[in-house]
Amino acid sequence: MTSKIKPSVQPSMRPRVIARQHRYLTWLSLSLMSFLGLMVLIVYESRWVYPEIQAYFSQTGSLTGQQLATRSRVYLQQAQTELLSDQPELEAFDAALVNIELAYGLFDVHVYRRQYECAEPSLMDMDRLMARLQQREIAPVVAVSELFMPIECLTHIEMSQLDRRGMAINDFSESTRQHNQVLTYSSLLIFVMGLVFWWLHERQLRRTDYATQETFEWMQRAMRDPLTGIGNRSALHQDVLAKKHQSLGLILVDIDFFKQYNDAYGHPQGDTLLRQLATLIGQTFNDEAQLYRLGGDEFAALLLCPDTATLKNYCQQLIKGLHEANFAHPAHPDNKGVTLSVGGSRFVAGEHTFAYAYEAADKALYRVKAAGRDGWQVTEDE
């Protein structure tokens, strides 16, 4: 028969519980912050990519510059074609002059003048050539040769613009690669840190659960009598406090002449009798009582008891059940089997009422002993 013990958590354990909960929150917070940092890094890198792409494709200076130089070169080459065509010289000069003027307008850009040394001389050559073409003072072949320098300059500008575009592409690719590396390694590091923090959290949780379980088991063992498996005196006191304001019955049981029993049978047999009596008391009360061994040959039972009549009935059943069990006691002075002295009292559970109830039940038990043992008495409600 085992008692229904409900150990309470000692007040001294509360700071430890709070400290453990704080550690849980610390590791869990660090883990969540790591994953949050990972998301922030990803969002930041994503916001970086769009401006870089936009900056690259908005390089109007490079792209437009290349287009103007190309179109200007094409017009000059068309002017050369017009000058070398089979059409009349006057018509060839007029057509060439139109193409050169168009080329000049596209070539005469401040960026070209500032960045390319050949731009200014080429424009001056084109000015002189247009003046001579208007005055018809130059031969077509000479005019064609005069255009080679501007065409060469425009070709140089085109190639330079292509080089700049290639450099921009390379810079963008390298920057993208570096940012991808930073994103990859940082994400991996933050992810690993998050897993580590989470693992530390889980490990601390498992350790605390294990320690709590050990503490709980230790408390259970501390509240039980190792011989019979029922509760001890501390468990009795704690269970009373757990049933505050309930109407309870307290029954104290003492084995008559237990020392003589041990002297006759030996202590191992005496231990066996204690276990048998614990089982008998539990069966007699139909497992409705919580049982305790208070030390030596003294037991206690705690049960719900609405009135004194119920308590008396329990005591009477216990003595009757023991007589029916008929445990032998060869050293009993009255030549009886094992007998009990039982005292009881009823009370409303509380810190102070329990002390009075225990004293009342103990006095009832000693009245039974004074009357010859093998019986029961209950202290009536005052």
Quick synopsis:
70% of the residues lie in helices and 9% in strands. By secondary structure, it is of the alpha+beta class.
Task: Provide an overview of this structure.
The protein is of the alpha+beta class and 382 residues long. The protein has 2 domains: 9-222; 233-379, Alpha-Beta Plaits (2-Layer Sandwich). Helices cover 70% and strands 9% of the residues. It has 12 helices and 5 strands. The protein has a 5-stranded mixed sheet, with helices on both faces. Helix 2 packs antiparallel against helix 3 (89-107), helix 5 runs antiparallel to helix 7 and helix 9 crosses helix 10 (267-284). The chain is rod-shaped and about 160 Å long. The protein starts with 13 loop residues before the first helix and ends with a strand.
Q: For the residues shown, what is the average pLDDT?
A: 82
Relative strand content? 5-15%
Overall shape: rod-shaped
Secondary-structure element pattern, one letter each: HHHHHHHHEHHEEHEHE
Percent of residues in helices comes to: 55-70%
* Helix/strand/pairing category: alpha+beta
Radius of gyration: 54 Å
**Number of beta-strand segments:** 5
Biggest beta-sheet profile = 5 strands, mixed
| Order of neighbouring strands in the sheet with most strands | 2-3-1-4-5
Overall structural domain count: 2
Catalogue the unreliable spans. 1-17, 59-63
Distance between the termini: 33 Å
How many separate helices? Answer: 12
